[in-house]
Specification:
The complex is a heterodimer of chains A (98) and B (500). Chain A has 98 residues and is mainly alpha-helical. Helix content of chain A is 39%, strand content 4%. An eleven-stranded mixed sheet of chain B has the order 1-3-2-4-6-5-10-11-9-7-8, sandwiched between helices. The chains are: A mainly alpha (98), B alpha/beta (500).
């Protein structure tokens, strides 16, 4: 298993959309290395040809009718009220390509 | 007569039916108990006294107490949505979030007539084994307030142990119901994955999360499971299987039953090491199981036990990092808007709103899922997950259920594991495998043991039963009969006695 560097940690913080202070980047580099070393024991096991388990329900393709469900005014108001910034009946945010 | 807040669910229901006391009397007694001990425990993040009393009064008027949960004061872990109430997951990022819908379990319990007293403390987003990772301060263990109650559902466990709620709900992703139940001396059940709807549970690791009850007796846990189990169109992972009557078989004798004691759980390789007091209490309970007619099978191996924890600590951060991507400060929750760009807003909102353990796990998960590492970590963990499941399938061809300690240790001191995340993760060594395999696990108190750092302390020890998928009824049956022979008394020593 590869070891994790501080540059990796900085890159991952960016992918995770987490702004972290410098001391935490340093601390996480050490702590993540220790945890990755521990979980690295998985590489001791031969798993060639072993199927993955993504879920354990035994169910597959659980479908429902593709129907539009209504939303009453009170629910819509609750949802909009939860937003940090709104403009009328819209949630307002900064543009992605600002 | 016992104080109202000491009674089991069953005893309470009998009292309501015979009009010995009303739901209002009960609710007022529980609220008084909360007022008496909350300062020492901090089991709740919010309590709603007026709503609770109003609901109890309405129940008293209806006079309908045939449902075992009717008029019963309960508590819900604060990662379960209840419309119009704060649902924080013990995170700053949701500190002011008011839920806009009801979790299915909340709907079902309220339909059964339960009175919700409040929402209980947890490790932030259910990540932890001590409730110390709550952004709003730790919960204390009612048996010794210098110790942790376990976690992540530590608030629910402490509340039921201390008499602040008759029963409670928690969620269990790797032991978060069973381990705190063990450390607080109450019963905790993690049902089979798919048995209980998770709609309205703030998702942590979606392929492992399951909701279940805390109670003062195994029979009570069966009654709560009855109320919340079953398919839900709002959670596609719920099973269409018929829900059995979980209380029907509780008294059926155990003669002929085979119970496995997996040898890996006691090998010298077990990373955490079992405390001598835990081992002694556990072995005494094994003797009782034999007296009850069960045959113990010691020649039983779950060869991938050592790897289950490593599987867990890849899958959990990976799924968590994905689930928590929704907390971006746009639609709800904390939002920091000082930055010029949207991406900088995301980073600042999440960096400030998510606590240290969550940031650590989001980082780990994002790394494990990132290009170049996905195969080495996440895919590999999913393959080993298959091997862990197969271990259980083979074991259940030999035995009806498995028995282990729930936790290798009794409750540890607050702060003892704070600076060593890996040591904290090892608290879950006996419980994670059941989640990885998706099978049910029940923890019940089996005795008291001294703490390694204080021989005079007497702290609860939990015993865990692990069963086949959808075979909760068998675990409840074994647990109920064992409970009757063990005579464990839930009498936490770290908090004031109830007023006479």
């Amino acid at each position: 298993m590869p070891t994790i560097t501080r540059r990796d940690v900085e890159h991952v913080a960016q992918l995770a959309r987490l702004t972290l202070p410098a001391d935490e980047l340093t601390r996480f580099t050490e702590q993540l290395a220790a945890i990755l070393q521990y979980v690295g024991k998985l590489s001791e096991l031969k798993t060639d040809g072993v199927a993955v388990t993504a879920q354990v329900t035994g169910l597959s393709n659980v479908m429902r009718a593709d129907q539009v469900a209504g939303c009453d005014a009170a629910t819509r108001e609750r949802l909009l009220t939860a937003a940090p910034e709104r403009s009328g009946d819209f949630i307002q945010t900064r543009g992605v390509f600002a | 007569m016992a104080h109202l807040t000491e009674l089991t669910l069953r005893e309470t229901n009998a009292g309501l039916r015979s009009r010995e006391f009303s739901s209002r009397d009960l609710t007022v007694a529980y609220l008084a108990r909360i007022a008496q001990v909350e300062g020492a425990l901090h089991a709740f993040l919010s309590v709603a006294p007026e709503q609770a009393v109003a609901r109890a009064v309405a129940y008293d008027k209806s006079g309908e107490f045939s449902n075992p949960l009717a008029g019963i004061p309960i508590a819900l872990k604060d990662n379960l949505c209840v419309t119009g109430t704060k649902t924080t997951a013990a995170s700053k990022i949701l500190a002011d979030y008011v839920a806009t819908y009801d979790a299915t379990v909340a709907t079902r319990l309220q339909q059964a007539g339960a009175v919700v007293l409040g929402k209980t403390n947890l490790d932030e987003f259910a990540c932890g084994s001590s409730t110390e990772h709550s952004a709003f301060g730790p919960t204390k263990n009612p048996w010794d307030v210098t110790r942790v109650p376990g976690g992540s559902s530590g608030g629910s466990a402490a509340a039921v142990a201390a008499g602040e709620a008759c029963v409670a709900l928690g969620s269990d992703t790797g032991g978060s119901i069973r381990q705190p139940a063990s450390l607080c001396g109450v019963v905790g059940l993690k049902p089979t994955y798919g048995r209980v709807s998770r709609y309205g549970l703030l998702a942590m690791a979606s392929s492992l999360d399951q909701i279940g009850p805390f109670a003062r007796s195994v029979g009570d846990a069966a009654a709560v499971l009855q109320a919340i189990a079953g398919q839900d169109p709002l959670d596609a992972t719920t099973s269409p299987r018929t829900v059995p009557d979980f209380s029907a078989d509780l008294e059926r004798p155990m003669k002929g039953m085979k119970i496995g004691v997996p040898k890996e759980y006691f090998s010298e390789h077990t990373v955490a090491g079992v405390e001598p007091g835990v081992k002694e209490s556990f072995e005494a309970a094994l003797k009782q199981l034999e007296r009850l007619g069960a045959t113990l099978v010691y020649d039983l191996s779950l060869p991938h036990t050592d790897y289950a924890l490593a599987v867990y600590y890849v899958i959990v951060p990976a799924e968590l990092s994905s689930n928590l991507a929704r907390y971006d400060g746009v639609r709800f929750g904390l939002s920091r808007r000082e930055q010029d760009t949207l991406i900088a807003q995301y980073g600042q909102t999440r960096g400030e709103g998510l606590g240290p353990e969550i940031r650590r796990r989001v980082m780990l998960g994002t790394y494990a899922l990132s290009a170049g590492y996905y195969d080495a970590y996440y895919r590999k963990a999913q393959q080993v997950r298959t091997l862990v499941r197969q271990d259980f399938e083979r074991a259940f061809q030999q035995v009806d259920c498995l028995v282990t300690p729930t936790s290798p240790t009794v409750a540890f001191k607050i702060g003892a594991r704070a600076n060593d995340p890996l040591a904290m993760y090892l608290s879950d060594v006996y419980t994670v495998a059941a989640n990885v395999a998706g099978v049910p696990g029940l923890s019940l108190p089996c005795g008291l043991a001294p703490a390694p750092d204080d021989a005079s302390a007497k702290l609860p020890v939990g015993l865990q039963l692990i069963g086949k998928s959808f075979d909760e009824a068998l675990l409840l049956r074994v647990g109920h009969q064992l409970e009757k022979t063990l005579h464990f008394k839930i009498a936490p020593t770290g908090i004031p006695a109830r007023p006479v």
